[in-house]
């Protein structure tokens, strides 16, 4: 009996020896705060360290157990201490200005971000910055003909301090328009690295995804008229309550991810123009493929689809100067929200096949589909003016509402249209009924949202407030 007991004890001891939990190694290094969308493998790749080493340093056994906000020790980064912050590059930022503002040595900045060339510095790119010091948050720019001494006096500092902060060789090394940083307060009010006509410019919700809505907010000098382009679409600016000007621009769901131009133009009262252009990062919307859809061949016949699409484009191209909506957009299925769900989301890649034929077309889902039966009430998601209310071959019973500022809503496949062209509709007002008309595989509500000539994800407009 004693022999078996001793054997069992040895066996259990061996289990304890072989299956002891993994402990974090005694590793020191800077701390990185996990961002939404991060994975252990992406973090390891970002810092060029071995995944196993990263897990061991943090006592992690399951690579899937990672949460936004979690702190990870990053081993192997000799000479770097403290916390590692993530900063998204905004319009007007540059490689040099970020190094100057953060006061992080350039060799450490390059090591953390694997920067080979400053040309890689795009709007919307995330950069890692160690929070070693306080940094400098006040930007100053020398005007043409203004010396560094004059600029230093305006900032209540001296030439040597300004040169030191900005890695200048001396008082002769500053260039007009160059973005410099100081610990003093800006006397000019121009706190950006943009031309003098711009006080500041900011792009919201970076990076912008395929199918997203870009929000460009600019503070400019009095009397300045703003314009510009995003990708290849002209921007239209409108004044908001705080005196700034805002442009909203959609990004096409099929635009390949990459970098594209964003240019701002400021026309001064004397007719002169100041411009600034920077590359903007557009990221993937990660849209999946829908199953093959078999539809009436007439609804994918170019003789029908192209004239109809051209008419829709002509309807949604004008930019109304008045903003009809206020605050958030509401779901057009709000009156039957308890019995509906999304049957297909915006951006999904699609292939339509004509029933009984070999005709097919490829594209993407241009709106948000709500499930539901014929006759359910459709409501206006926001205030606006009806610019179309009729039937089309592809879209069936159709209503298009102009919300102002280049924003349009479209509602397809209706069994009943309850409004007419020219009507002003209020948010929540019933405008028609769900149906099964046009190119469909079953009754549903298709809601489409156009932002300055581009269809965007309507779900974003239910999630965020624009502008």
Please supply descriptive tags for the structure shown above.
Membrane-bound Lytic Murein Transglycosylase D, Chain A, eight-stranded antiparallel beta sheet, 29 strands, alpha+beta, disordered N terminus, 9 helices, 467 residues, Immunoglobulin-like, 4 domains, 31% strand, globular, single chain
Describe this structure in words.
The chain is built from 9 helices and 29 strands. With 467 residues, the protein is an alpha+beta fold. The strands form 7 sheets. Strands 17, 20, 22, 23, 24, 26, 28 and 29 form an 8-stranded antiparallel β-sheet that branches. Strands 8-15-14-10-11 form a 5-stranded mixed β-sheet, with no helix packed on it. The model is unreliable at 1-25 and 186-191 (pLDDT under 50).
What is the number of helical segments per DSSP (H or I, 4+ residues)?
9
Helix/strand-derived category reads: alpha+beta
> Averaging pLDDT over every residue, what do you get?
87
Helix content: 10-25%
- Give the N-to-C terminal Cα separation: 80 Å
Main sheet specs: 8 strands, antiparallel
Alpha carbon gyration radius: 29 Å
Given as residue ranges, the uncertain stretches (5+ residues, pLDDT < 50) are 1-25, 186-191
> Globular, elongated, flat, extended or rod-shaped: what is the shape?
globular
- Count every beta strand, where a strand is a DSSP E run of 2 or more residues: 29
- Strand percentage lies at 25-35%
CATH 4th-level superfamily of the largest domain: Glucose Permease (Domain IIA)
What is the fold named in CATH at topology level of the largest domain? Glucose Permease (Domain IIA)
Instruction: Give the tally of structural domains.
Output: 4
What's the architecture of the largest domain in CATH terms?
Distorted Sandwich
CATH class of the largest domain: Mainly Beta
